[in-house]
Automatic annotation (TrEMBL):
UniProt cross-references to Pfam families, sorted A to Z: DnaJ
Spans traversing the lipid bilayer: 6-23, 130-149, 228-251
Family named by the database record: Belongs to the DNAJC25 family.
Organism: Ciona intestinalis
Protein name stated in the entry: DnaJ homolog subfamily C member 25
Any one annotated GO CC term: endoplasmic reticulum membrane
Keyword Aminoacyl-tRNA synthetase included in the entry's annotation: no
Amino acid sequence: MLASYFVHISSVVVILLCTFDLASCQLIPGMYCGEENCYNVLDVDSSASKGEISKAYRKLARIYHPDYLRGRGGSEKEIEEGVLKFHQVATAYETLRNTQTRDEYDYYLQHPEEYYYNYYRYYKRKMPNVDVRVVLFGTVTVISVFQYISWMTSYNTAIQYMVQNSKYRNAAKEEAKSRGLWVEKRKQKKFKTKEDLKQEEDDLIRSIIEEKMDIRGGYQKPEYSDVLWMQIILLPYYIYKFFKFHISWLYNYTIMKKEFTEEDKIYLVCKNLGIKPVAWDMQSDKNKYECMNRELWITSNAKVYIHEKQEEAKAKMANDPRMKRYRRWMNKGGPGRLTFDDD
Ligand SMILES: *[C@@H]1O[C@H](CO)[C@@H](O)[C@H](O)[C@H]1NC(C)=O
């Protein structure tokens, strides 16, 4: 049990590594024949019949089985290597001789990107005596850890990009200055090295960018409560919140005919315009004011508004010189006509 748990954990680590660098590891060590293709291990075609597979296995087993090696007077080293090779051959045979595992393995080869699914199927079969709940527990844990790490990676990449980008960097610098956090270089203490100063500057800029990003919502720092495990645990709470919201909505607005609160108006505007609350927060004050002024929480008003915006966009395209040139070119026959003009 402990051993299988270890295998489980080591594969989790490998899956995580592979996710970030898929090209370098299509096949996952620790699953089936590891990084080798089981068909190659047995030296058979992927369409080989059951008989051919058994024959290939018997042939290789006779070469690598420790007993045979010993019988032929192989050295300790040869026997040691033979054991490993024999183990690999046996694993390949185990995988391919059974139609069901072979189908699963073929699927794994064709869809290496579906690692959760492949992983789940492999371990379920590998540990048939293990309670399916344990397998599910492990799989959900893998997904949760994976989610958190991959969100963290993309968050860090985004922040890193902004720290390096002069536009965001300058904005952050201005912010630091306005808060009195920025110390001019010449006023810095002398004993600090250049690298220290650069590091301090980067840290300050980074912290300001992170804070601003959090406010704008687009690049929120990953939250533990968003990972699958927490979502499952919090499910009853979400269900409760869902019903509470809809029932009180029904009560307040449909039955009691109350006036919409400001918050609920925004909720409806977002719904009518098909945007997320985050996107609403990022709208300019002018846009927000226009939406509220035109009472877009009323569906018919929102429809008129959306139509107007679409017409506006169309008119803008019609007057765009680039689009005009494109249309002229299309009228002349578009990409279907060979021309030799320098148009
Ligand atoms: C309904 O009204 C109550 C009390 O005025 C308020 O607390 C609740 O948030 C409202 N529900 C909705 C969905 O706006």
